[in-house]
Amino acid sequence: MRTTVQVSYGDGGRWKPVPLVKLGERRVAAVSHPAGAKHVSLRASAEDKDGNAVEQTIIRAYALK
Predict the structure, then answer these.
(1) DSSP strand E in the chain: where?
(2) d(Cα 49, Cα 18) in Å, to the nearest integer?
(3) How many angstroms separate the Cα of 52 from the Cα of each of 1, 20, 47, 49?
(4) For residue 7, how many other CB atoms are within 10 A of its CB?
(5) Which residues contact 1 (CB under 8 A, 6 or more apart)?
(6) Which domain of life is it from (predicted)?
(7) How many domains would you assign to the chain?
(8) Which of 18, 20, 55, 59 could, after both became Cys, cross-link 45 (CB 3.0–4.6 A)?
(9) How far is residue 49's CA from residue 42's CA, in Å, rounded to a whole number?
(10) What does each C-alpha distance from 36 to 16, 18, 30, 33, 53 come to in angstroms?
(11) How far is it, in rounded angstroms, from Cα 13 to Cα 42?
(12) Is the pLDDT of residue 52 over 90?
């Protein structure tokens, strides 16, 4: 299985890869927020061994204070 996560702090104008950390049987996206960021957009994709794939993009998935 192939899984990727990307993050954007500019409403999807520019994407950066997010490292995935194995935690037991799960993988966790390790997102680090830069100073001054106000919103976080996320894009994830996954593909299984049979070639079935999905991609989802969420612009302004959450806000930062």
Answers:
(1) 2-8, 16-17, 20-23, 26-29, 39-47, 53-63
(2) 22
(3) 10, 20, 6, 8
(4) 21
(5) 46, 47, 48, 49
(6) Bacteria
(7) 1
(8) 55
(9) 24
(10) 17, 19, 18, 9, 34
(11) 12
(12) yes
